[in-house]
Structures are given as C-alpha cells and as structure tokens.
Amino acid sequence: MKTIGLIGGMSWESSAEYYRIINQEAAKALGGTHSARSLMLSVDFAEIEAAQHRGDWDALEAEMVAAARALAAGGADFLVLCTNTMHRFADAMEAAAGLPLLHIADPTAEAIRADGFSRVGLLGTAFTMEQEFYKGRLASRHGLDVLVPEAEDRALVHRVIYEELVLGVVRAESRAAYAGVIARLVARGAEAVILGCTEIMLLARPEDSPVPIYDTTTLHARAAVAAALA
C-alpha cells in the first residue's frame, strides 16, 4: 500500500471526514483491521482564511508548497489536498514536491461523466466559484459545462461556509437556503450539482436536491484509497 500524504486543516472539520472515509474504504477493500497508510500535515486555518480574504495568494502558495515538500520528505508517495479552493496551487505543489497530486476535480468529474451528465452546477467558496482554476479544469479536461450561482447566491454560499460550516455549525435554515440555491441552478439547466467545498457535505444532503449531488470530499477520499492500493 502506498502512503497517502494528506494536507488538511482547511478546515479540520472536513479533514476529519477525509481520515474517516479513507480508513473505512481501506478496511472495506482489505478486510479485517486494515487501515490506510497515511501522513497528514494540518495547517492553521485561521491563517489560511485570513490570507484568502485579503487576497495574499503568494503567501498561500508558499504555505501549500512547503506542506507538499514536508510530506514528500516524510515519505508520502502522493499528495491529497483536503480542500477544493487551495487546488489553485496544485501544479506548483506537485512540481515542488516531485510527487503526483490527486486533483479533487478529477474523480468528481469522472463520476459525473460516468453517470451521463455534462451540465453541472458548482457550489463552493467564492474563490472556487469565481476563479478559473477549478471551473477551467472541469471544462478543459472533462468537457463539463459549469454553472455557478448568481452573485447574491454565491455570497450566501460563501458566508455559510466561512461563518458556519468550518466551525462545525450546521443550521436548518442554511440547509434550506442551500436547497434554494440548488433549485435555482437546476432551473437554469444544471443536471447535477458539485459540492465543491469539502465542508458542504456536512450540510447538503441528496434529499435537498432534485438532481444528483456530487460530494467532492467522499469522491476524493475514495480515489485516494484506490490510488494507494493500485
């Protein structure tokens, strides 16, 4: 089994889900008391969040590159970045560490394509919804037509992530608000919806959507186990 190098803490709420899912999937694949070989470097999310909101992307890239190099030095065989937004730096991290990085968008897009969908809604942080690093990969590598919410809905989705979900707060009114955002994406033609922030799986459920939802956290974690066992 290869050693998975996890970069977590963004936030720790979703990193805990990664650890749980990865070890459950390893046990399912191997049986008995097996678990996954892994290393996790967990960053301080308060520092990450502050840099994101002041637009200090150079500092964030340096932090992610340093984390990738540390995991390579620690013996990781490949990298898993336990957040969607920081995949902005995926190429730089891979190059600096000299290790492959399992990009979160790829297993998500592959699952969507396997189910026969091509037009998808994307929920995530404002950075993920508005910048091209994520939408562009879905479009250019996987041929997906990506819809994002309108400005007011993007602000709502972003606020709930940073003011509630990263703190482990799950509110019924926020779940209902997200269901409304999803319904409006579906009305614009979305055939499925990507939960493109690793915390959204704590809030949005399949029954909250009239179309299939794709939980990037679970899909990424399962792909990590498949890669470790390949």
From TrEMBL:
<comment type="similarity">
    <text>Belongs to the aspartate/glutamate racemases family.</text>
</comment>
<protein>
    <submittedName>
        <fullName>Aspartate/glutamate racemase family protein</fullName>
    </submittedName>
</protein>
<dbReference type="InterPro" id="IPR004380">
    <property type="entry name" value="Asp_race"/>
</dbReference>
<dbReference type="InterPro" id="IPR001920">
    <property type="entry name" value="Asp/Glu_race"/>
</dbReference>
<keyword id="KW-0413">Isomerase</keyword>
<dbReference type="GO" id="GO:0047661">
    <property type="term" value="F:amino-acid racemase activity"/>
</dbReference>
<dbReference type="InterPro" id="IPR015942">
    <property type="entry name" value="Asp/Glu/hydantoin_racemase"/>
</dbReference>
<dbReference type="Pfam" id="PF01177">
    <property type="entry name" value="Asp_Glu_race"/>
</dbReference>
